[in-house]
Amino acid sequence: MAEQAASTESSSSSNTSDRPARPGTAFPAGSGGGPGPGPEDLASSASAPGGTAPAKIDEIIARQEEIFVARQSESRRMAGRANRALAGGVTSSWQITKPQPVWLSHGKGSKIYDVDGNEYVDLHGGYGAALAGHGHPAIVEAVRSQAGLGTHFAQPTPAAILVAEELTRRFGLPLWRFANSGTEATMDAVHLMRAVTGRDLIIKVEGCYHGHHDSVQVSVCPEPDDVGPAHKPAQVASSTGIPRAIIDLTLVAGFNDLEGVARLLDENPGQVAGMIIEPIMMNAGIIKPEPGYLAGLKDLLHSCGALLTFDEVKTGLTAGPGGATRVTGVTPDIICLAKAIGGGVSVAAIGGTEEAMGHVSSGGYEMVGTFNGNPLAMAACRAMLCEVATPAAYERIEALRLQAVAGLQREIDRNGLRAQVVSVGAKGCVVFSAEPVRDFRGFLGIDDSYSHAHWLYQHNGGVFLPPWGKIEQWLISVQHDEADIERFTGNFAGFAAALRT
Ligand SMILES: Cc1ncc(COP(=O)(O)O)c(C=O)c1O
Asked: Same domain, yes or no, for 373 and 248?
């Protein structure tokens, strides 16, 4: 997940650090405070007599934070200096990690290096964008040669056609346009659904994140007190600065809840333009759609003259070569891509059916932007699609995914932890919950202190997972190898043993 205003209405109450917290992340919670399983529930009593006491997880966090800070004196110095030049001392509010932001010097292959010279296996992947790893020769060559030929014209270049054709082959939608970020892509998708249908209302799923534009900054990660009943989730502002009038146009349903969507469509006849959804939720750990859910949504929406948009900003290319669309077998009306498609260069794509994108072709909706289809971005995108994200690369990633899952599961079993490993393609996470999670309400119940402690443990052991605890997932790049995954599962073994003892 990426950029969003730091101070959210919902986060302030739970933020125990002196920095803004990402919504719904009550870390370091330690002794809980959320409605989820208490720490004593996490380790089964059979293998961990007495379980992991609240004080114990607090102790683990405190000790790991000490180590973390001791390893990063230069980062600390930079943070101090940055505070005088950058608002909040960082370039995005979600770079404010606890106990302190980590300043990086460079990346190479599967590794990144901080300004203190520490090396990390990079499973953060820049919030899921670095599927190519770092300094991949094909990306370097594409960017270098295009840079020498001009970095910007605001006129189309041939690479854009190649990229669009390849996206059609992978995702099954015929027409494409480009933008610069996931936020722009989903903003265009929402505009387009409204433009095509002439309707104002949209439906989004509680717990899905679609970027930081107004229409989708609703119920992203609401606090337990604000969510309302599960069958009728409240429309909760997820950022300050969003007018109530706009929030009211975004209706909210639970994930995997077809009936909830049917109800919203019934209650608002002829008024819903469409629905935007992460087809596999990836801003609440990973939550998979139940069989029939996505196909059911498409049928329901179409029966009411509304459209379906898949936000594949995270899943596109990482869930598999054709994203969640290919994995689930359901092709929506509109697909949004960003993050990994540019090989680390900022770019987004919006694909659609003839009907939806025909509205763009005809001028019914003007999809515009100075940097749309920028030649540097298109060159990187072409290299990513044609030379990096190849069938052989996906095979390698699948083998590493299996290695990671087996290693983590072994330690979960050995230590009697109540936790789940969930993975799809290059992405995965450990969910510190006794039960599988099927929607945001289940996710809300998870005590985030375990994920934070795990993040610290990995970090101090030379593996950089994405910050923000239970929300995020690992990303395995095309440049990772078995030794990288071993370092990851080895650190997890240490963490699991610490929880047990
Ligand atoms: C599913 C999803 N959609 C959209 C976005 C927004 O993308 P960007 O940060 O590039 O604006 C994100 C960012 O994390 C995301 O996870």
From this structure: yes
Q: What are phi and psi of 45, to 5 degrees?
A: -65, -25
Ligand 1: atom nearest CA of 278 is 1
Query: Best substitution site from 210, 336, 346 to test ligand 1's pocket, by max atoms within 8 Å of Cβ?
Result: 210
* Partners of 336 in the β-ladder: 311, 350
Name the residue range of residue 82's domain: 12-134+391-500
Q: What is the pTM of this model?
A: 0.91
Identify the weakest region by mean pLDDT among 38-47, 239-248, 478-487: 38-47
Of 209, 365, 450, 457, the active-site residue reads 209
Is the minimum distance from the CB of 310 to ligand 1 under 6 angstroms? no
Distances in whole angstroms, Cα of residue 69 to Cα of each of 214, 458, 460, 462: 37, 14, 10, 14
Shortest-distance atom of ligand 1 to CA 338: 10
Cis peptide bond prior to 23, omega within 30° of 0: no
Looking at the domain assignment, is residue 396 inside a domain? yes
Give Cα 340 distance to the centre of its chain: 11
Virtual CA dihedral for 357, 363, 364, 366, nearest 10 degrees?
A: 80
In this structure, the chain runs to a length of 501
Among residues 191, 485, 152, 153, the alpha carbon closest in space to that of 345 is found at: 152
pLDDT at 71 over 70: yes
Indicate whether 52 belongs to any domain: yes
In a domain, 20, yes or no: yes
Whether 311 is catalytic: yes
| Interval 414-470: pLDDT, tens | 999 999 999 999 999 999 999 999 999 999 999 999 999 999 999 999 999 999 889
